[in-house]
Structures are given as structure tokens and as C-alpha cells.
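Q: Protein A?
A:
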Amino acid sequence: MERTGRFVAAPLLAVLIAAALLLAVGLFPTDLPASSEPSFLDTIFDNRGVIWASRLLLVSAAAVLAFGGVFIVASTVVRMKNGDWLRRAGPFEVSETAADEIEGEAEFWRDLSLAQKEEVAGLTERLNGSDELIERLRTLIDDD
């Protein structure tokens, strides 16, 4: 098991490093437009290293935001699947008493539905008994 993990991890790591290098090389600017009257920003961005670093920064920020979003959605789905209540999200927090009240209400309605199912089952048995009694009476009336 450990050996197959190494066989998978090594090529995957090599592919990721190669992709990162290709991305870094692809982001390097080739031509810089010349400006007849350069402003302060034109002077700053007249250097290929500055443009390359700013492009890397933007791509890195986009990657961090994308992975963060995927992590948040995946962890929320897993918590929902496990039945965990979301009690805190950033600065917002649900108090324990409110969460306990909600859980208590859910338990109340669950118990009530079970009681109603039992009552329905009892009424169904009584109805079947009544149907049998009516059938017997009909056969007795028809025989006379």
C-alpha cells in the first residue's frame, strides 16, 4: 500500500512542479509597450520583473481563493452529511441554547409523528375489523 502511494505521489509531484514552472515561464512578459509620456505607474511597470511578479501574485491569489472556496464547500457538505450543525461562520455564531431548542423541537415533532403512526395503525386495524363485521352482516342478511 505504501509502495503504490509512492509510485503515484512521485509522478504527480513531478507533473505539478513542471506545470508550475511552465506557468511561471508563460507569465514572463516578452514585449513592453513604450509610452511617449510615461506616468508614475508606467515607470514602475516598465520593468519585466515587476510585471512578472505582479502576474505571479495575481495567479497565486486566484489559486488560493479557488482552493479555499472548494475547501469551504467540501467541508460544509461533509458536515451536513454527518449531521453536524453549523454553529459558527466567521463573526456569526448561533448560541448553544438556540441550537438545543431547535434540536428539542425536532425531537418533539419526531416523537409526535411516531405517535401519530401508531394511532393510524390502530385505526387501520379497527377499520379492517369493522369491514369484516359488515361483510358478515351482509352475508347473514343475504342468507335470510
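Q: Protein B?
A:
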Amino acid sequence: MANGREVVSGGGDREKDFDTRDAYLVAALLTMGVEPVGNEPVRIITRAHESGEIYQFYFKPGTECGTYRTRDLLSYWIAGEAWVEKNPDHPFAHCIAFALNLKAVLKHVKTASPWVYLKRGRGMAMLPLDASAGLEERILGGSKL
């Protein structure tokens, strides 16, 4: 799940606040009940030498009820699909599976070819936007395929 990016900064064995730039992980931690830190749980960071902005989210070390530690959830997140397969009934496994599925759907949508509805007379068809005139004629022009 880390995709080569740093998932959380900090380190060592101390339980302290965690931060991440991964919006999928942010949603997963919130879903599990890990609360954001303080009055400013997100910072928008801009850098003079880079375009765009970075969103840094800050979280407490665990859930208020004590059921989940953020450090543990992060290790599960980093393990990704392999951890989900070993722990399919864990609530966080569902969060990870959701994030993986959403990423796959968005990737497909970004690479999918657009289609268009065309109407000619009484005929209507859905064709790829880059369909040839010949295909359009065969579908809507009444020619046999």
C-alpha cells in the first residue's frame, strides 16, 4: 500500500502522534476510530521549488477505547493485500480492501476509452468515441455486419 512513499514519519518505539500524506490511509484510520490530533489535524504544505501542495494529516497513537494502536494499523497497511488475505475478518482488512479496490477502479477509469451515444433516425448506438466512420455506418446505417 505504501507505493514507495513514506506512509508515516517519525519512528522509534515511542508511542507518539503519527502523520501521513496518504489520503486512503487517512480515511482508513478515521474509519477505525483513530482521532486526528489537536486543532490542526491537517497542514497544507507548499514548497517554493515544487509545484502543487502536500497535505500532511496528524493522528493520535491509537483509538480512544484502546482497541487499536495506530502503529499496528500502519504495519497492516504497509503489508497490504498479504495481510488482508491472512486476516480477512479483521475490520481493518475491509478498509485496506476498499482502498485497493478504489485505487484499481480509479486507475481503470483514467485509462478507459470514452464512449458516446449516437442517434440517427430511429437507431441509437453506443460506440467508442474514436470509432471509425465505417463502424458507425455499419451499426447505424442499416448495413449488415
